[in-house]
Amino acid sequence: MSAGEQPPPPAPFPAPPRLKVIGAGFGRTGTLSLLTALNQLGYKTHHMIEVFGKPGQVAAWRAAVADRAAGRPLDWRRLLSDTADTSTAASSPAPPSSSAPASSSSPSPSTSFYDAVVDWPSVAFFRELLAANPDAQVVLTTRDFDSWYASAARTIYPVGRMGAAIRPPPYLAPWFRSLTEFFALHEELMWGGTFGGKFEDREHARKAGGACGLDDDKVYEAHVAEVRSAVPPGQLLEFSVVCDGWGPLCAFLGRPPPAGDPPFPHENDTAEFARFAEDMRRRAKRLAVLFAASNAALAAAVATAAVLLVNAVVHRRHAL
Known about the structure:
By secondary structure, this protein is mostly helical. 49% of the residues lie in helices and 5% in strands.
């Protein structure tokens, strides 16, 4: 550096890990099958199932939503850490008015990281991920819109609605925080974010722009068009988990097929997920009964305590 030259400002976060593969398809386009395939090829792959049950991951991605909306840098090290709880310092995003990054705690240097991402929440950050990893190979899992919409409407959407309806009373909230914050992330990134609260409007889901501060994020067909235009030639594979297999994927990634010639994975089909959704529905109903019963019990306890208190006061007055 020459005399008088100012040093560059320090980076807000340590250098992020480099992604090798970015999955650019929405959930229900075969992302779980692609996750399984990439892991069999030796990648360490992030998917929404990696977020569930990991409070640090939920907090990190919710913070990323707030950071992006406020124009703050994103902490990719925290977002792509495979540690179960990447931060105990932050359990919710910082207010948008804050000038400091909401994600203020990063993993230790010994932490391992994902080197591939698919599905939500990462697909909502496709543009930022590609900018941070310009050499990454991009796999766009494809599915006809009508087939995709019918599947999503039977699976992830009703599960998200049921999750959003889980509202424990304040005195039970700490025991359900990880669950409610997980579904809050769903709402912020997917149903309220990407689809602008209008997923049930089929044509909006097909073409319209998003909302919730995500700066013109596109919905299904526009998202596909954006991926095609944003990714440099030679870095994009459009891939159908139903019609394609190991051949096109391995040729694109430059990796040999898994040993033993296993069939290409086909995970989490609509019927399988619909059974999961029905199980979630039953569990949500039981939780609603639990919350109602606990509220009734609390009300009864408060009323009993009030009666006893009044009686004690009356008795005391009569004794004087």
